[in-house]
Amino acid sequence: MSESREKMAIIGAGPVGLGMARALKVHGIPYDQFEADDDIGGNWYHGVYSTTHTISSRNVTQYPEYPMPAQYPDYPSREQVLAYLRDYARHFALVGDITFNTKVVMARPRSDQLWEVTLGSGETRIYKGVVVSNGHDWSRRYPQYPGVFAGEYMHSKDYKRPEQLAGRRVLVIGAGNSASDIACEAARVGTSSDVSMRRGYWFVPKILFGKPFHEAFPLATPIWLHRLLLRLVLKIAVGDYRRYGLRRPEHKLFTSVPTISSELLHYLRHGRITPRPDVARYDGHRIEFVDGSSGSYDLVVCATGFHLEFPFLPKGMIPVRDGVAPLYGGAVPQDLRHLYITSATHPIYGFGPPITAGADLLATLIPLQDRIELPLGRVLKACGMKPASTHLLHPASALRELRWARRLLPVIVPFVERRLRRTIDRKMGRASSAPTANETASESLNPDMTVY
């Protein structure tokens, strides 16, 4: 058993994992990084389809410490984002610390407050802590409807190229960003393209006032004002969604990720995409909808999102309800030392700025946890912090909170921890806060588990 008692283990080398590794390296925190695939990039490497472009503009997607090339378009392609991530990893000398083709199948705490990490090869290593950056767009979520569909049935995760749609009658279930892209591609190359929506969605053009949507308003705009201004602009620029055959959304802007697409609205008005309500049942190639209408299809693509999962952690260690993990500061569980879940949140646009700010905060929290006895999450709770109630981040608000946290927590946490420790000692005596080895030792290992 290999021991690296002063090192952290980072799981994953996608955009989040690379940002975490950069921050740890810059702050002199030793680590090993494990990637189950054979290259960096995460979902941008093995997940997205060939024609993908970002839904957030270059300026709000890039890492602040390493801008994208100036010649990149406003909305870079999959190939451009992947090349950028590879350049980022080379620039900060991250590649040499990544072990590729290596799956982590179990990470569990020990009674001595260290972490035991088991690899797919069967090797076990001991680390000070674990940084989970395994992503959130990989464990497919499917809708459940009665009946049997006789055609091809796939998740949007398994759509890779337009040839899969060519000459076929396509139904896309869902209306998020992937659903919109696939429905528009089917409108170009398929025989027909229908999109089934169980509710109303906010559809926003990619360009407003001649600028990328996310740059049409100052990035520091508070979320309430952002909502107000955008609703006004959409009323003028897009009009009533019902004129496109769509339902009006009943939820507030930014309580879910808006669908950023100029093409979907275009194809709806040109009759190349037909909007449908929710599915009622399957009947061979025929599909019935809840309004009594029906259609015949060769292919159904379920763009219905993903489950949030951490298959290499003991079952129940991080409870997830309705896609939300109850973490403090978006990353810290309440009762475990040196476990940081950095891939449980989803910015409503752009990945770079919140990753950088969150990674720099993480590099502050790790030595802070070393200075105190109690688990950091328990102390953050005592400071009055609330666990996450949503998986969505509004970047402007999140950046303000992350920067303030990095300044204030090193001052506040030690003081609060001392008071909390005295209170605990008075009530029950000194006790270890970490789960014992016996509490997690019964977890079975599965070297064949799916992790992306």
Question: Explain this structure to me?
Answer:
With 452 residues, this protein is α/β, with parallel strands linked by helices. It has two domains: 2-138 and 307-440, FAD/NAD(P)-binding domain (3-Layer(bba) Sandwich); 142-304, 3-Layer(bba) Sandwich (FAD/NAD(P)-binding domain). It contains eleven helices and 23 strands. Strands 1, 2, 3, 4, 5, 6 and 21 form a seven-stranded mixed beta sheet that branches. A five-stranded parallel beta sheet has the order 8-19-9-10-15, covered by helices on one side. The chain has a three-stranded antiparallel beta sheet with strand order 16-17-18, with no helix packed on it. Helix 8 runs parallel beside helix 10 and helix 9 (376-382) crosses helix 10 (395-428). It is globular. It starts with a strand and ends in a 12-residue tail after the last helix. The relative contact order is 0.15. The model is unreliable at 432-439 (pLDDT under 50).
| Percentage of residues assigned to helices | 25-40%
Q: State Rg.
A: 23 Å
Q: Stretches where pLDDT falls below 50 for ≥5 residues? A: 432-439
CATH architecture of the largest domain: 3-Layer(bba) Sandwich
Overall 3D form: globular
Helix/strand-derived class? Answer: alpha/beta
* Annotation field: number of helices: 11
**Considering the protein shown, what is the CATH homologous superfamily of the largest domain?**
FAD/NAD(P)-binding domain
Averaging pLDDT over every residue, what do you get?
93
CATH class of the largest domain: Alpha Beta
Domain tally? 2
- Termini gap: 27 Å
What's the number of extended β-strand segments? 23
Taking the sheet with the most strands, its summary is: 7 strands, mixed
Strand content: 15-25%
What name does the CATH topology of the largest domain carry? FAD/NAD(P)-binding domain
